[in-house]
């Protein structure tokens, strides 16, 4: 039984609350699926949901919350990123004869709030990972105002300032701009010489 599994015999027409915890073992499996092999779980992920039956269908509502240690894309320091994502899931029984993947649950590829189930127990890994993948920052940042590393000397500008020119330090590509300007004026001089001849 997976960390985020629910035994369907526990579900009735009256909503019931479940609190399931994705611990370190669960995370070491999941982070590969999320393609975040380096990330370390900080707070175990807690799935707090209410589930009940509507005829043959199952309805779940709740949230997944937890945190992981990521690396800031600007200053390259580790920081803790918190997640708290609402989850809603409506499942209908899989048609007879159809074989669902392990875990007894298959999500609608178009809408992760819908899916099919099968068997006596379902594993909520798939919808939870879907939510986390969407919530995962494309560019992890320790803070919106992170000042990053100085492009000149590599100093972490959140911790202290450096001796480099203030203007240069805050513009990582200013070196490139200088090159382009130098090459342009070089070309102009060459053209100038050609014209003079
Ligand atoms: Zn940072
Ligand atoms: Zn510097």
Percent range for helical residues? Answer: 10-25%
Give the helix tally.
4
Helix-strand category: alpha+beta
For the record, give the distance between the C-alpha atoms at the N and C termini, rounded to a whole number: 85 Å
The average pLDDT value, as a whole number, equals 86
Total strands: 8
Listing every helix as H and every strand as E from the N terminus to the C terminus, the arrangement reads EEHEEEEEEHHH
Could you say how many structural domains there are in total?
A: 2
Strand content: 25-35%
Strand order of the largest sheet: 2-3-4-5-7-6
SSE layout:
Layout: E1 5-7, E2 16-22, H1 24-33, E3 40-54, E4 57-71, E5 78-93, E6 105-107, E7 114-117, E8 121-123, H2 125-135, H3 166-170, H4 174-196
Parallel strand pairs: 5-7
Antiparallel strand pairs: 1-8, 2-3, 3-4, 4-5, 6-7
Bound molecules: zinc ion (2 copies).
Description:
With 197 residues, the protein is of the alpha+beta class. It has 2 domains: 5-135, no CATH class; 147-197. 25% of the residues lie in helices and 34% in strands. The protein has 4 helices and 8 strands, in the order ββαββββββααα. A 6-stranded mixed beta sheet has the order 2-3-4-5-7-6. The chain has a two-stranded antiparallel sheet with strand order 1-8. It starts with a strand and ends with a helix. The model has no long low-confidence stretch (mean pLDDT 86). Residues 150, 152-153, 155, 162, 164, 169 line the site of one zinc ion (ZN).
